[in-house]
Amino acid sequence: MTLAEIKKTVETRMDQSITAFKSNLQKIRTGRANPALLDTVQVEYYGALVPLSQVANVALIDARTISVQPWEKGLGAKIEKAIRESELGLNPASVGDLIRVPMPPMSEERRKEMTRLARTEGESAKIAVRNLRRDANESVKKLVRDKLASEDEQKRAETDVQKFTDRHIAEIDALVVAKEQEIMAV
Fold first, then answer.
1. What is the pLDDT of residues 60-113, one digit of tens each?
2. 114-118: long-range contacts (C-beta < 8 A, 24 or more apart)?
3. Beta carbons of 30 and 182 less than 8 angstroms apart
4. pLDDT digit string (tens) for 115-158?
5. Is the pLDDT of residue 163 over 90?
6. Looking at residue 139, what is its pLDDT?
7. Coil, strand, or helix at residue 183?
8. Which of 82, 84, 79 is nearest to 99 (CA)?
9. What is the DSSP letter of 113?
10. Three-class SS of residue 32?
11. CB 42, CB 28: distance < 8 Å
12. pTM score, two decimals?
């Protein structure tokens, strides 16, 4: 692997870490309804557990209500049970074929708990980025040991990798701050 390939690989993997972090942030509950909140709910469908999005249409009715429209008639009760038994603390209500999932208002204590969770997720993402930096630097040092790159090239590559790391960590910090503001907004 060349220095250019190492740099390209580490930047791509750091971008993937940011993408995974963004998806984890979407699952953290704010005061507003968000269809992504129900992505973790599994519904029993013909003996197998499948994600809710594969058996129903999930959409927003308003800022505090999610609607779940099952694609098959008999699934309403199973979906309602799966949402109720999930660890999200939601209480769905059926209105004919439509299942309405109102988002209860969050207490100040719960909001603070959610901001702590967002910070924890951010710290995990930063650790992943730093681990990628370490792996890239080790790969560069191996090239130098194998005499496939000079020490000057090593220093330049490590500087570039550090720039990628700094940029990605700054992006993670910005995402955490934005999520905290979203959670604390009443």
1. 988 889 999 999 888 888 999 998 888 777 889 988 889 999 888 778 888 888
2. 114/28, 114/29, 114/30, 114/183, 115/179, 115/180, 115/183, 115/184, 117/28, 118/25, 118/28, 118/176, 118/179, 118/180, 118/183
3. yes
4. 888 899 999 999 999 999 999 999 999 999 999 888 899 999 99
5. yes
6. 93
7. helix
8. 79
9. H
10. coil
11. no
12. 0.74
In degrees rounded to 5, what are phi and psi of residue 140? Answer: -65, -45
Total Cβ atoms within 10 A of residue 153: 15
Which CATH number is 3-27+107-184's, of 1.10.132.20, 1.10.530.10, 2.40.10.120, 3.40.50.720?
A: 1.10.132.20
Going along 11-126, which residue ranges are E strands?
42-45, 48-51, 56-62, 65-70, 93-95, 98-102
- Joined together, the tokens standing for residue 109 give 């204590």
Say yes or no: do domains 3-27+107-184 and 35-102 share a fold. no
* Residue in this structure with the two tokens 């992006």, named with its chain if needed: 171
Pick the CATH number of 35-102 from 3.30.70.20, 3.50.50.60, 3.30.365.10, 3.30.1360.40: 3.30.1360.40
Domain boundaries, the chain: 3-27+107-184, 35-102
Contact 43, 52 (CB under 8 A): yes
